[in-house]
C-alpha cells in the first residue's frame, strides 16, 4: 500500500485506488459466479426435491441471491 503525505494528511496514491477498484471488481465477479453456480444447482433439483426443501422453482433466483449476497 503506497500513500503520499500531502498537507499533513495521508492521501491514498493512484496505485491504491486502482488496487482497490480491481479487488472490488474481482469480488463482484466471484460473487456473480457463485450466484450462477448456486442457482444452477438448485434449478437442477426435481420439483419434489424442491418442495421437500419448501422451495418453489419461481423463488430460486431470490434464494440463490440471498445465499450469495445476503440480501
Can you put this structure into words, describing what you see?
- The chain has a two-stranded antiparallel ribbon.
- It has helices at residues 14-43, 47-52, 60-69, and strands at 3-6, 9-12.
- Helix 1 runs antiparallel to helix 3.
- It is mainly α.
- Helices cover 65% and strands 11% of the residues.
- The chain contains 3 helices and 2 strands; from the N terminus they run E-E-H-H-H.
- It has one domain.
Structure described in brief:
The protein has 71 residues and is mostly helical. The chain has three helices and two strands; from the N terminus they run E-E-H-H-H.
Reported for the largest beta sheet, the result is: 2 strands, antiparallel
Secondary structure: helix percent: 55-70%
> How far apart, in Å, are the first and last alpha carbons?
31 Å
Given the structure, what is the number of helices?
Answer: 3
- What's the domain count? 1
Compute the number of strand runs: 2
Taking all Cα atoms into account, the compactness measure Rg is 20 Å
The overall average pLDDT, rounded, is: 88
Structural shape: rod-shaped
Helix and strand content put the structural class at: mainly alpha
Low-confidence stretches: none
Tell me the strand percentage band: 5-15%
Amino acid at each position: 500500500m503506497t500513500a503520499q503525505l500531502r498537507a499533513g494528511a495521508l492521501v491514498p496514491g493512484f496505485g491504491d485506488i486502482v488496487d482497490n477498484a480491481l479487488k472490488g471488481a474481482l469480488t463482484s465477479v466471484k460473487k456473480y459466479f457463485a450466484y450462477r453456480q448456486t442457482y444452477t444447482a438448485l434449478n437442477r433439483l426435481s420439483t419434489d426435491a424442491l418442495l421437500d426443501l419448501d422451495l418453489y422453482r419461481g423463488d430460486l433466483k431470490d434464494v440463490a441471491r440471498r445465499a450469495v449476497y445476503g440480501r
